[in-house]
Amino acid sequence: MTNLEARQAGHTRQARQARALTIAGSDSGGGAGIQADLKTFMAFGVFGMSAITALTAQNTVGVQGISPVPLDFIEQQLESVIGDIGTDAAKTGMLGTAAVVERVAACIERLHIPNLVVDPVMVAKSGDVLLAEDARHAVRVRLLPLATVVTPNLPEAEALTGLPVRNLEEMRAAAAALHGLGVRWIVVKGGHLPEADDAIDLVYDGSGFEELRSPRTHSRNTHGTGCTFSAAIAAGLALGREPREAIRVAKQYISAAIASAPRLGHGHGPTNHLAGVSSRWGAGAGSA
User: Fold this and answer.
1) Is 107 a catalytic residue?
2) What range defines the domain where residue 224 resides?
């Protein structure tokens, strides 16, 4: 390769658009699921793609209906995207059933999808169940061993490990158990910790623990925080960040998104996916 060819190749690598894929359910209210993930990818300057696993009739108050997507069509979406555009990272969200988990895991393996972030979505903010009991076993056995990062909250960590997770010491035990299932990086989210002044997330890579703290924002506008946080990690990985740095930046982003959330709906409102992003195209922007 000549010097000119080397410079051109280097420029192409630098200029290539980072890509991220979300494999999750659609939230018609726009605060969680596919919609939240794509907004988050865009906020990070990452090109977002999707494979939809289920349609929901959903808003800030609750989930009024769920319509599953056929397994073959989920697989077709993944083959279509990866076969043409490819991806630098991916995340899973709402999968719903054991059959969907199994099919998605098989596709991730066969299509060699890299830098997988697993958000083990089980229950919506409204209390609606989004993952069947048998599917939790499939997540543990089939999906977690493929993950670079997994991001359970306290109830999800309990469901995945069978351990009580109610304080920092129990969060550490759960993180170690999840690492034993094959996950490289675990983020146990401490938003449900009682009487904590800070929002504490525990990060574990098999060698040491790190506590990520931010001032707790008391807000009802937390719909889709798990989706948004995990999508931000995936975006960071797509940009070439190491997992620890991607997790730290995602923590800063979701904290800002909650603190600046718009007041929408009558229940748990969405976060602000444009937190920290300025745009010349929005309201009040001057003419070009």
Assistant:
1) no
2) 18-259
